[in-house]
Amino acid sequence: MLVPTRLQTELVLRCYKETDCDLCVRVAVHLAVHGYWEEPEDEEKFGIAEDPEIEEPRNASLQAHVVLSFQAYPTARCVLLEVQVPAALVQPGQSVGSVVFDCFEAALGAEVRIWSYTQPRYQKELNLTQQLPDCRGLEVRDSIQSCWALPGLNVSADGDDVRLVLDVPEEMRFGLSLYWNQVPGPAKPWWHRNLTGPQTITLNHTDLVPCLCIQVWPLEPDSVRTSICPFREDPRAHRNLWRAARLQLLPPRAWRLDAPCSLPAEATLCWQAPDGGPCQPLVPPLPRENVTVNKALEFPLLKGHPNICVQVSTWEKQELQECLWADSLGPLKDDMLLVETRGPQDNRSLCALESSGCTPLLSRASTRAARLGGPLLQDVQSGQCLQLWDDDLGALWACPMEKYIHRRWALVWLACLLLAAVLFLLLLLKKNHVKGWLRLLKEDVRAGAAARSRAALLLYSADDAGFERLVGALASALFQLPLRVAVDLWSRRELSAQGPLAWFHAQRRQTLQEGGVVVLLFSPGAVALCREWLQDATSAAGAHGPHDAFAASLSCLLPDFLQGRAPGRYVGAYFDRLLSPDAVPALFRSVPVFSLPSQLPDFLGTLQGPAAPRPWRLAERAEQVSRALQPALDSCFRAPGTGRGMGPEAENRT
User: Fold this and answer.
1) Is Magnesium a UniProt keyword of this protein (predicted)?
2) Residue partners of 211: CB distance under 8 A and separation at least 6
3) Banded model confidence at residue 43, pLDDT cuts 50, 70, 90
4) Which of 367, 413, 476, 607 has the fewest Cβ atoms nearer than 10 Å?
5) pTM higher than 0.85, yes or no?
């Protein structure tokens, strides 16, 4: 078969006049013969009857269809080349020459990608990426008319911001586009404007990624576009790219790494033990290879297991790790992973993956796997272990360890009793010193019991999916303090069955009867609902969905605030950068209103009431809640289309 082996490019000018030329890319595809090819001996074997009257010689040849694809933002072209090689030149494994396509027109300064493969495909495609020079880098720019009036573009740093300075004549109209030059796939426009020069565009440093490119062109017919990608080596852009990267689970057993640009990283499967040690790489199921972003990848596993995770790392350090089945298969299990290696003549060996390495079963090592080597081998043979992967080279087995742990409970209880006896003796010997410690411990226990008994009902307006995730993160963090939290996100079934008004009445009555507090989370949507309700309660009540608990609750909340019954029973809160303090309606300022996460300690102290812990412990809990909220806050403010923290701002310098 005839296949492409190498791509070669050459920049040429396609000129219509001496001073009217376009930049063009000439592509040469080098071809070679792979495999064994045999010249047909007799056409009659193929059902073709030879005409005895026609005795012209027929030269056999090797034919192939080669696809050549050319992409340069915002255009793409594809050609199909039919190649014929005389039989005399066909030598298996040898090059037969090259075919030249003349040529692909491209924009100045563009990054072009070229692919070549056979049709049908006999092997992996060849690809080549090349950065074309712009008018500033061309010695022949005087021959290209579009270079004469091309807008000038300079990039400069201004503290944490980046300034794009476009040096163009006054009143000249031009187009400016910012786009993500992704591989694979076409470039994705991110921001586009038609402007009048000169201009200075400001970019926030958090918007920078390595594949962010800038394209500028005069607003004239068939004008040439200048493209530059100035952030490829910017350390801030690479840090932002890793912050934006996300691992996603795609059922049943697939995963995908989402990122704006391609990542110079590798992905592997690993085994995460519940003891918190490093995740042990599993090389056989998923060999180390470069990650393809924004593409679904299948796990080569027979069964899923909560301890199997994915690591995405660079050659310097690990960047991302996710145990993707944690939500569906539960927490990490104390299972022992056995690695079976298969050699020639049906030779097999088993070792157990531990933090110190892979320990052979039935060895004399002083590890848990070595001590239980015989029983674990019997578990594999009797089918009590779960087979996760199977291949000609080996297999992976997950063996439960619960039954072996139960055998040691007697020794554990004996050790606990002995320790309790020693502590009791120490308490008797140092009774006076212990009294003060016991008094402090008693206060902490009482505070913890009071906190656990305090209930909190969260009410919010579901503005969008990002804000709902933020509310869910806050509810989960408060639940871990612990507080008994009620929120409609966790009660969808009851909300649908009872209706939002009946559900809120029941939750509010139970929370207040138990001495709890109702938390009003203000957002732009919640403030708008309050104002609508205060103006016209009847129309506001019917304007929202059947599952909007916040809208349904306003009819019960407002009387408490109007009649002065709200203090001590309600607390207000809003998130920093999402709402200003003055936006909260004046009616609701009769109760404490906190800004999150900047006022988290005071907010938590108010929720826990008189039994709140000491300030240092309250500060620790506030830090814990702040860490839990941070990913959801970043995601909420980074969400496209929200207008929070995204997109450049144009400033006219004329």
Assistant:
1) no
2) 180, 181, 182, 183, 229, 232, 260, 261, 262
3) very low
4) 413
5) no
State yes or no: cis peptide before 482, omega within 30 of 0. yes
Rounded to 5 degrees, what angle do the CA atoms 37, 41, 46 make?
95
Whether pLDDT at 191 is above 50: yes
Distance CA(30)–CA(98), nearest Å, equals 4
Beta sheet of 111-118, edge-to-edge order = 75-86, 61-72, 111-118, 126-131
* Whether the Cβ atoms of residue 32 and residue 3 lie closer than 8 Å to each other: yes
What does the angle CA 572 – CA 577 – CA 581 come to, to the nearest 5 degrees? 40
Amino acid identity of 523? S
103: tokens are: 């040529």
Task: Tell me which amino acid residue 590 is.
Answer: S
For residues 181 and 111, the answer to whether their CB atoms sit within 8 Å is yes
Helix (H, G, I), strand (E, B) or coil at 233: coil
Neighbours of 37 (CB within 10 A): 15
Tell me the C-alpha to C-alpha distance, in Å, between residue 580 and each of 585, 633, 640: 11, 16, 21
Residue whose tokens read 């030329």: 21
Across all residues in the chain, what is the average pLDDT?
Answer: 77
The H-or-E segment that residue 114 falls in is: strand 111-118
Q: In whole angstroms, what is the distance from residue 536 CA to residue 565 CA? A: 23
In 338-464, which residue ranges form alpha helices assigned H by DSSP?
368-371, 373-382, 402-406, 409-429, 431-453
Which bin fits 452, alpha (ψ -120 to 50), beta or left (φ > 0)? alpha
Report CA torsion sign: 139, 144, 148, 151.
negative
Cα(580)–Cα(522) distance, rounded to whole angstroms?
10
Least confident of 51-65, 100-114, 211-225, 497-511: 51-65
State the DSSP code for 458.
E
Alpha carbon distance 298, 286 (integer Å): 10
Tokens matching residue 149: 């009036």
Give the mean model confidence (pLDDT) for residues 120-128.
Answer: 79
Report the candidate in 594, 465, 537 with the shortest Cα–Cα distance to residue 529: 537
Q: Mind listing the pLDDT tens digit for each residue in 129-163?
A: 888 876 666 665 666 766 665 566 777 776 777 88
**What length is written for the chain?**
654
Looking up tokens 């300079």 gives 154
* Spatial strand order in the sheet of 335-342: 357-360, 348-354, 335-342, 394-400, 386-390
